[in-house]
Amino acid sequence: MECKVSWNGPSGMSFLAQTGSGHLVIMDGAPEGGGNNLAPRPMEMVLLGTGGCTAYDVVLILKKGRADIRGCECTLKADRAETDPKVFTKINFHFTVTGKGLKPEAVERAIALSHDKYCSASIMIGKTAEITHSFEIVEV
After folding, report:
1. Which of 14, 48, 63, 97 is deepest in the core (most CB within 10 A)?
2. How many alpha carbons lie under 13 Å from residue 23 in its C-beta half-sphere?
3. What share of the chain is helix, strand, coil (3-state, %, to 5)?
4. What is the pTM of this model?
5. pLDDT higher than threshold 90 for residue 94
6. For the chain, which residues make up each domain, given as ranges?
7. Can you list the positions of beta strands (E) in 8-140?
8. Third-level CATH fold of 42-139
9. Which is nearest to 36 in space by CA: 3, 9, 13?
10. What would be one Pfam family of this protein (predicted)?
11. pLDDT per residue over 23-43, tens digit each?
């Protein structure tokens, strides 16, 4: 895996990231840090990448188990350390899984498998942060 991050110049703290798969992402800093607040912060990108990684796992695991899943949202709420390095210290992953006849034990198992075995991002972040999970099932 490879990516490239380039500073967009002296007028702020905006960066352009290019992924190895050819996608572009803009990141920016807060105004108090010299940024213009035009794009997500780098640490927000870490958090959303972690949410994407684990949501991907949960959907894949449920689909492989032949669950009739129609939707999955993962809302992450995180706390960071007050001093540098301002690592994540607590993160709650709340899943809203939509489908027909979804079994709570299957959803719980999918989340646990992602957390314990498959989601590289949350396993890495779990080295500094206390990670908790919650979920709800919406029947359609």
Report:
1. 97
2. 3
3. 35, 35, 30
4. 0.92
5. yes
6. 3-33, 42-139
7. 15-19, 24-27, 68-80, 88-100, 130-139
8. GMP Synthetase; Chain A, domain 3 (3.30.300)
9. 13
10. OsmC
11. 999 999 999 999 999 999 999
